[in-house]
Amino acid sequence: MDLFIYLGLFVVSLFVLIKASDFFVDAAEAIGLSLGISPFIIGVTIVAFGTSLPELAASIVAVLSGSSELVVANAVGSNITNIVLVLGVAAIVSGNIFLKHNIMDTDMPLLIGSAAFLYFVLADQVVTKMEAVLFLLALIIFIINSAMGDRDEASDRTPVQLKQYLILVLAGVFIYFGATYTIVAIKELSILLNVNQEIIGLTAVALGTSLPEVAVSVSAARKGKAEIAVGNILGSNIFNTYCVMAIPALIGDLTIPDGIVSFSLPFMIFMTLLFAYMIHSKKVSKWEGALLLLLYVFFLMETLKMGFE
How many structural domains comprise the chain? Predict the structure, then answer.
């Protein structure tokens, strides 16, 4: 009976976390437009950060509740899920993804650099406060680079109503409670199922918190806006690497499980390089999307195998 209770709590709290993040993103986007921030910058920063908000909220609560191993599991697992699942589904749904703009000059090298940076930081299974600060500095550089790429005129500003600010605040409150009870459910489920918490973080939590990326990217791909879909994946992964790792590391000490360093992290590096290879041709076919989904199944099977060994 306890298993079903906490499983239900996990599903409900994760749903609240995701929906609250969705409202937060919509309100933040409306406020950003009212301040004259360009849609491009909003997409790369506010939307990318907003879709990574569930990962950040869950990771902060995990550190505060003494389950810091969930932080790196959530960040690495979400980065893998964003590429293999989100891009895979988007490519299959849209038939083929075609890119008009070249993101190989700056954006993709920044993503690869963030993955390499994370690998070297986690190699000794310790994240120092200085490394966390470096993560945040790297994130600031990424945001500045994105901001310099596009500007919006004041005449394009869209008025925003007071309710958007209220929605922003209320959404933040629900994000807090959604994240809190998601972590509570994970801790209890890991005990009942006798599974390491990082395994749940790499699979169930990573999948659940990546649902906003799935929704945004698939919707964009169906509307023929492939740049938004790919940009959302790219931006979200950079935010996951830098922000989701840095802020919890500044709050408390992070536990880095052996399985993350030996399998999950190298797999994330491989998928990031494969992502770059696919995007290099400015096209992701539905068959490549199917391959990505197969790789996701492989990742889940290997991760679950580690959890029950």
Answer: 1
